[in-house]
Design a protein that fits this description.
The complex is a heterodimer.
Chain A lengths: L4 E10 L2 E11 L4 E5 L6 H8 L7 E6 L2 E2 L5 H7 E4 L11 H6 L14 H13 L15 H14 L4 E5 L7 H17 L3 E6 L2 H7 L2 E6 L2 E6 L1 H4 L2 H8 L3 E7 L5 E7 L8
Helix pairs in contact in A: 4-5, 5-6
Chain B lengths: L2 H21 L9 H9 L11 H35 L12 H14 L4 H23 L7 H25 L5 H10 L7 H20 L1 H7 L3 H6 L4 H23 L5 H13 L3 H25 L7 H19 L6
Classes of the chains: A alpha/beta, B mainly alpha.
């Protein structure tokens, strides 16, 4: 199977400051990949480079087997959606207006969205379960709802790959689960390859099929979540001692959870 | 479409036309409705003129050009204000953010200093207004892209330079004739316009407005910020270039004809947002209609309120500024 995204030897630096180098990456359909690593390790920059918002300084990037550098902005945006962190905006657009923006790569430069584009946007809003917010102002809904609206906008691009930059970071407990469940559904039902940066090892355990551990601009480990989200790796990544526990998830299966150990901090 | 929205759309279409029709009757020379209709119709229908030649002159050489220009200039300043506010993601931006009015003011002052005709003044205003924007754009362009913040800052720089040059022009101007001429020009007025101004200034204004209307939906996307717009497949530099060229074409043409008229480009988009919401698909046409009507009404006041002409810049600020304060209070500093 051809990877949706293939990166070989990717490197990026700001002047002399190397953000990451020598990165290899393959993303396949039906996979949810989590990028885990401490602040400043290069996760966000990597996602931006994959989305070509930033330009890789070295290395080769292929999207669906085509060289990314040979693709126009429009073609790239049809293959790949970027879910930004929810943020405030200056103008109180409705949720539908925001999601409709996702149709831009499918429209010619002077065109406005048609009734069909509206349907696709409404379907995307439906997929993330916020149909009741369609006419609400984006500035007046909660942070979790804004994040869902931004996911819907990326879905309106009808992409095969979703890049997500810490989609759960500003959200309360309930909204975090809502986003993670939505991501799982997209990977399983819509056959979208997802790569998301996150600060929560537990979220990686709940959603991902593959985990990449990143530190100082390089991958230190890569594999199935249960293989790489271990006490020793997390200690190496964050300098924190953790306990990995197994809990019943109510449906007869066992889920793994990470519990950080506070009293061990002195040993950092 | 809801009932309220349909009503607003009808109102916005009807408003400028009604205002234009009524404006024909205003002025020192009284013309009755029946005569006016027949004078206007005589251009299309074979009607035997039974009115004095003066009526013809007043209608076609004085009132009609003035009404057309007031409508076009009001529409131009407002639509470019709305487009720039979207592009700069800031509802407090006005069309002169890239220095176009400062440049045009300096150009006009040079024209007056050279003792040139109104045509020379107009051409130099247009030239320097455009030059100021080109300079802002060139300074703001780094690494082959044009970050919005850099554009704002370079606009401030270029505006400051041309303001200083304008002060210099005023300082060296003959204080009895040329200085007052510069000062009056800077206050803005449609008193001295002619049919020729309609022919030279209206086409670029219409072209610029058409350009802005054509890309109006994409301004929504641009207003989300550069990175998000690029991620959505938008060629941000191309779109910014189009918006800047169109806004400069309309503002520089407007300013070159009537001098500097502030406040319209800042305030009218806010009124538009209150009526039709922030979506630029409806905001741009709404701003166009509101701005056209507003400047026409202001210009009617300017020519009828007292026996002398009142400069437009004074009236737009005296009416516009308190209204803006009211809007800010009403929305508590937010964006309506």
């Amino acid at each position: 199977m051809e990877p949706r995204i293939r990166l070989r030897g990717g490197a990026f630096s700001y002047r002399d400051h190397v953000i990451f180098r020598g990165l290899d990456l393959d993303l396949f359909e039906g996979e949810a990949t989590c990028l885990l690593g401490p602040n400043g390790c290069g996760k966000t920059t990597l996602l931006r480079c994959l989305n070509a918002i930033l330009k890789l300084q070295e290395g080769d990037l292929w999207l669906n087997g085509q060289r990314a550098s040979a693709l126009s902005e429009t073609k790239r945006a049809r293959m790949m959606g970027f879910v930004f962190q929810e943020h405030t905006i200056q103008f109180p657009y409705s949720v539908l207006d925001i999601v409709l923006m996702g149709r831009a790569p499918h429209l010619s430069f002077l065109a406005s969205p048609s009734a069909r584009d509206r349907q696709i946007a409404e379907r995307a809003i439906d997929t993330v379960g916020i149909a009741h917010l369609e006419d609400k102002r984006y500035t007046e809904i909660s942070g979790g709802e804004r994040q869902l609206a931004l996911i819907a906008r990326a879905l309106a691009q009808e992409p095969q790959v979703l890049l997500m930059d810490e989609p759960t970071s500003h959200l309360d407990f309930g909204n975090q689960m809502l986003i993670l469940e939505t991501i799982n559904r997209l990977v399983q039902e819509a056959h979208i390859a997802v790569i998301m940066a996150t600060h929560f090892p537990n979220h990686a355990l709940l959603t991902s099929t593959k985990v990449l551990l990143m530190r100082d601009g390089g991958f230190v480990a890569e594999g199935a979540p249960e293989e790489v989200i271990t006490g020793s790796y997390l200690k190496m990544l964050y300098g924190v001692n953790v306990e990995v526990m197994s809990v019943g998830n109510g449906s007869g299966r066992q889920d793994r959870v990470i519990v950080p150990l506070m009293n061990a901090h002195g040993t950092r | 479409m809801t009932h309220r929205r349909r009503l607003i759309v009808i109102l916005l279409v009807v408003l400028p036309f009604t205002a234009a029709c009524l404006s024909f009757f205003l002025g020192r020379y009284p013309i009755g409705p029946a005569t006016l209709v027949r004078v206007l119709a005589s251009r299309i229908l074979p009607i035997q003129p039974d009115w004095p030649d003066t009526v013809e002159t007043v209608v076609f050489n004085i009132r009609l050009p003035r009404i057309i220009l007031a409508l076009c200039i009001g529409a131009s300043l407002s639509i470019s204000g709305a487009a720039f506010q979207g592009m700069f993601q800031n509802p407090l931006v006005s069309p002169d953010i890239l220095g176009v009015t400062a440049g045009a003011g300096f150009g006009a002052a040079v024209g007056i200093l050279l003792g040139g005709s109104s045509l020379l003044v107009q051409v130099l205003a247009l030239l320097f207004g455009t030059l100021a924007v080109v300079l802002s754009y060139a300074i703001g362009r780094i690494y082959k892209t044009t970050p919005t913040l850099m554009l704002v800052l370079s606009g401030i720089v270029v505006g400051a330079i041309f303001s200083a040059l304008l002060s210099l022009a005023k300082y060296v101007a003959d204080p009895r004739q040329k200085l007052p001429a510069i000062v009056f020009w800077l206050m803005g007025s449609l008193a001295a316009i002619s049919k020729r101004d309609v022919i030279t200034a209206v086409p670029p204004m219409l072209a610029g407005m058409a350009g802005l209307l054509a890309v109006r939906w994409r301004i929504n996307i641009l207003s989300m910020g550069d990175e998000e717009a690029r991620s959505l497949g938008l060629k941000t530099d191309l779109l910014k270039g189009i918006v800047i060229v169109c806004c400069t074409a309309v503002t520089a043409s407007a300013v070159s004809v009537c001098g500097i008229i502030g406040w319209i480009g800042l305030v009218i988009p806010h009124v538009g947002r209150m009526l039709v919401g922030p979506d630029h698909r409806s905001l741009l046409p709404a701003s166009l209609a509101l701005g056209a009507t507003y400047l026409l009404l202001i210009d009617n006041l300017a020519r009828t309120l007292i026996s002398a002409e009142i400069p437009l810049g004074i009236l737009t600020a005296i009416v516009g500024a308190p209204f803006f304060a009211y809007l800010l209070r009403r929305t508590r500093g937010g964006t309506t």
